[in-house]
Design a protein that fits this description.
Strand content: under 5%
Order of helices and strands: HHH
Number of strands: 0
Number of domains: 1
Radius of gyration: 17 Å
Number of helices: 3
Length: 62
């Protein structure tokens, strides 16, 4: 994977390392979500529904 190559390469610039870690995490979570038949928008809606539900409110989309 290209991201992992960048993580272990000779480039030690912290900003580039941070970007590479973020990109790697994005790829991992995207793959996990796709495996569950979801995408990031669905996950965001689920989290928002849960948070609003805890406050006694309802999430209405559309």
């Amino acid at each position: 994977m290209v991201v992992l190559d960048r993580l272990v390469g000779e480039d030690v610039d912290p900003l580039h390392q941070l970007h590479a870690y973020a990109e790697y995490i994005h790829h991992v979570y995207t793959a996990l979500l796709e495996g569950m038949g979801m995408d990031i928008h669905m996950l965001t809606q689920c989290a928002l529904r849960a948070q609003l539900g805890e406050m006694g409110m309802e999430f209405v989309y559309g």
